[in-house]
Amino acid sequence: MKRISILMFAAGAMLFASCQKDDETTDPMVTTIQEDDLATNYYDDVDNEADEVTMEAPTRSLASSEMDIVADNGRTVTTIVNADNSITKTITFTNWTNPKGNQNIVKNGKIIINVVGRPIEDVFMRTITFENFTINGNRIEGTKMITKTAANQFTATCDNGKITFTDGKTYTRTFTRTRTWVDGFDTPYNVWDDVFEVTGGATGINRNGYVYTHTIMNPLRVERACRFIVSGTVEMLVNEKTVILDYGSGTCDNLATITYNGKTTEIKLRGGK
After folding, report:
1. Signal peptide: which range, if any (predicted)?
2. Using an 8 Å Cβ cutoff, are 158 and 203 in contact?
3. Does the structure show a pLDDT above 50 at 6?
4. Residue 210: inside a domain
5. Which of 115, 143, 150, 242 is the Cys-Cys partner for 126 at CB 3.0 to 4.6 Å?
6. Has residue 135 been placed in a domain?
């Protein structure tokens, strides 16, 4: 009888754990938050690639209208100096996984960057557009702009942002953010040790057709050495429900918590995958 009781207890515990796991997996609010974080991650990763080629040490000076092409095993960067002295850099990806990054995600297509100045200079403005650009097969669209507004501070916007997932569903995003460069500016040619604090908000329509608003309540700490946002809180309003996403207190991991209806639940983030 004792053996049967132990077996029944073990089976019950396994069933309970399975239900808890299923609850997290199937809870639509958890999925909503994970997808919002994924959208943030994808557009942040575009900045990673753009910053790397914008900040890199120049190999040589280019005259107006002169072209420079640098190929790197799946990524080709074409640089042209325009008549107004702005620079256009086109990054062409072919099954590219950045060996310096930590995302382990695959990019294809083109990112087109028009830039004036560099982030370490007094004047810096950059516009990013996309041409058949995908991350892990998910198509990324929109126009991203960033302007330096003060020492180590930048205003970033995204207009007409749209992610088309591999299943055909879409996720739209428009945002305005302030990005403060808090660490890594003493190594300007290495973007992968950079740390930013981000404030602002976003709006859009999620893949289920619901309008959402995304407001950063406490600054998000983005460390390029980590593929996850390491701290900060976001308030999401979607389908008349308010949810708080808390990224934690600074540990680089895939864990976060969401709070809604008075209940706090730990979830796992996808980190761009």
Report:
1. 1-19
2. no
3. no
4. no
5. 115
6. yes
Q: Nearest-CA neighbor of 85 among 114, 51, 109?
A: 114
The answer to whether residue 21 sits within a structural domain is no
Whether 3 has a pLDDT exceeding 50, the answer reads: no
Instruction: Encode pLDDT of 134-187 as tens digits.
Output: 999 999 999 999 999 999 999 999 999 999 999 999 999 999 999 999 999 889
pTM over 0.90: no
Q: Is the pLDDT of residue 2 over 50?
A: no
Identify the pLDDT of residue 23: 43
Question: What is the DSSP annotation of the chain?
Answer: -HHHHHHHHHHHHHHHHHHHHHHHHH-HHHHHHHHHHHHHHHHHHHHHHHHHHHHSPPSS---TT-EEEEE-SSEEEEEEE-TTS-EEEEEEEEEE--TTSS----EEEEEEEEEEE-TTSS-EEEEEEEEEEEETTEEEEEEEEEEEEETTEEEEEEEEEEEE-TTS-EEEEEEEEEEEEEE-TTSTT-GGG-EEEEEEEEEEE-TTS-EEEEEEEEEEEEETTSSS--EEEEEEEETTEEEEEEEEES--SSEEEEEETTEEEEEE--TT-
Q: Is the dihedral of CA 37, 38, 39, 42 positive or negative?
A: positive
Q: Is 186 part of a structural domain of the chain?
A: yes
d(CA 89, CA 114): 6
What's the pLDDT score for residue 273? 56
Q: Is the pLDDT of residue 15 over 50?
A: no
Q: Could you give the number of structural domains in the chain?
A: 1
Greater model confidence, 13 or 75: 75
Query: What is the DSSP pairing of strand 195-205 with strand 170-183?
Result: antiparallel
